[in-house]
Amino acid sequence: MQHITIAIDGFSSTGKSTLAKQLAKELGYVYVDTGAMYRAVTLYALQNNFIGDNYFKVEDFVLELDNINLSFKFNDSLGFSEMYLNGVNVEKEIRTLEVSSFVSKVSAIPEVRYQLVKQQQKMGEGKGIVMDGRDIGTVVFPQAELKLFMTASPEIRAKRRYSELIKRGDKVRFEEVLKNVQERDYIDSHREDSPLFKAEDAIEIDNSNLTLEAQFESIMNLVRMTM
Length: 227
Ligand code: C5P
Hints:
Elements: E1 5-10, H1 16-27, E2 30-33, H2 34-47, E3 51-52, E4 55-56, H3 58-64, E5 70-75, E6 80-85, E7 88-89, H4 97-106, H5 110-123, E8 129-133, H6 136-140, E9 146-151, H7 154-167, H8 174-190, E10 203-206, H9 212-226
Parallel strand pairs: 1-8, 1-9, 2-8, 9-10
Antiparallel strand pairs: 3-4, 5-6, 6-7
The chain binds cytidine-5'-monophosphate (C5P).
């Protein structure tokens, strides 16, 4: 069977990474969570005071991009890769609501996108990859053999994200999680550079009422038909 590229795009908290991890495991492919890369760059901007509640020093931050080193390291016991920022594991820090509330602003900057897209394309050179994000089927791998576009209602998505955060021990209110999900969707789909939209040849999956198992089965059928 030939190795293919699987591009998964869609709105926030539609279960893209859960699906991508399942597919990568089943197929023995590499999984790349591009959201984690944008989140790590945002964490760097926050840690170094380039962005805050009422300011964003965009020009200074752009000059700093060469000092940001991102890498993934596979964690055997977890069964997936974790995000490292300048050699430090930041997997937990990048998932906070604080990072979520700034990430769409940071990822709207063309220079940030240019650098990360270049790295992502390099990772996918050998195919056998599942990558999820917002512009994978449209910009990063427009030639991907299989493109999926995930959707679900905002309330269902916010509920999923809220449960994740509560499980991790974060103190958040449902309303603020819902607001964040809606704001990110708006900024992500209205930005000038690489806005989120469904590629013409992507298959749309609305998983509002699908179990994980049913979703995985139907997508594995698509994968088999594509290979
Ligand atoms: O996938 P996740 O929700 O973790 O992504 C966080 C944010 O990173 C998104 O809301 C979006 O602003 C940005 N992102 C992006 N392009 C990608 C992946 C993520 O702009 N390919």
